[in-house]
Amino acid sequence: MAVNQPRNQCEAKSYIFRVVIEDDHFEDGREAYHAFAPALKGCHTWGNTYQEALANIREAVEIYVEDLLESGESIPIDNDQDVMVQSTPAVVVNV
Q1: CA triplet 57, 59, 61: central angle to 5 degrees?
Q2: Model confidence pLDDT, tens digit, residues 17-52
Q3: Which parts of 1-95 fold into alpha helices (H)?
Q4: How far is it, in rounded angstroms, from Cα 23 to Cα 63?
Q5: Would you call 67 helix, strand, or coil by DSSP?
Q6: CB-CB contact of 25 with 90 (8 Å)
Q7: 19-86: what CATH class?
Q8: Nearest-CA neighbor of 65 among 81, 76, 52?
Q9: pTM higher than 0.85 for the full model?
């Protein structure tokens, strides 16, 4: 199932995408973190720290969804809890 919501619509929904952040390493052995959103094919990024990877995947998800909407495509809705939809605006806080 997918949702195609015009950007100029007055009502807003909140989409919460599950993300995965994994330990990774650069080719030279330095630590890094790989982050991705399973529901958004190809939405991957990385960071030097866990916090940087989290900030980068948040931005990557926002850009990915903006691109979907601008091109008239639907936001993917995954029934396996990779995406949760709330019918009202919400703020998600990661701690």
Answers
A1: 65
A2: 999 999 999 999 999 999 999 999 999 999 999 999
A3: 50-70
A4: 24
A5: helix
A6: no
A7: alpha beta
A8: 76
A9: no
